[in-house]
Give the backbone structure.
Amino acid sequence: MKHTKLMLCRVAVTILLCACGLPATPPVTGTSSPSPSPSALLTSTATTTPTPPPTATSTAPETATAAPTSTATPLPTDTQTPTPMPTYVRLRGKVTIDQAVCHYGPGAPYLYKYGVYKGSNLEIIRRAEPGEYIEIQAIGGNNPCWVNPKYMEIKGDLANVQPVDPQDVRLPMSPYYAPPVRYSARRDGNTVTVFWSQLVLRAGDDSEQIPYIVEAWVCKDGQIVFIPVGTRQLAVEIEDEPGCSAPSHARLIAAEKHGYTRPVEIPWPQPGEQAAGTPPVEVTQTP
């Protein structure tokens, strides 16, 4: 018993000595140490990325390259230079006779429009080409008519005035009458005779002036000239020579007090169509 107590005392002393030799454990505070960030974890952790297996690549078949084609080079063309438009002038002229007749058309046979008197200063706006007459009006006016230039003293050159073909001159037209229904032409040498049927007018429609005009473009001295031939008969004779490059031609108009009938083309026999010693050549036409 005494021995047992002694052994217990030694064990107790040994336990006390061991407890005194252990280091002190620091107290645990409420602050936790920072946890490593996800990025740090990712950085420090090696990641293995699986490599995809190689895939088969299809190569497009070679295409045939088209052979180069030759392109035709256009040949240089001549550049058309525009023709400059002529510049015309209006002249002034003074009537030199007591009274000059001014007509609706470019010639003496056309209907009377009004008279112009000695000393009147007028404006010359156009000239007949071919032909002789000039178109005049009051200075700044708008009622022109045609007069023979030999009755005027003209300041300037008529060649600088605008020309107009007589067939382009606008005549007053009759709203009531058609042209004659029958007309013809006959050549005998250089003489052409034109015939036509009568235009029958109602009472009171006679113009009491020249009722028929053959407007003729004929050859004279190698040039085409314009000759308006007026008559009260049903036929006229007109001279037409050979030697012009352009063909001769003519047309017929008839007048009544309201104006002229529609012009009709005369079937004109050309120079050379009649052989020597043969009868005259005649051509007939109806509208």
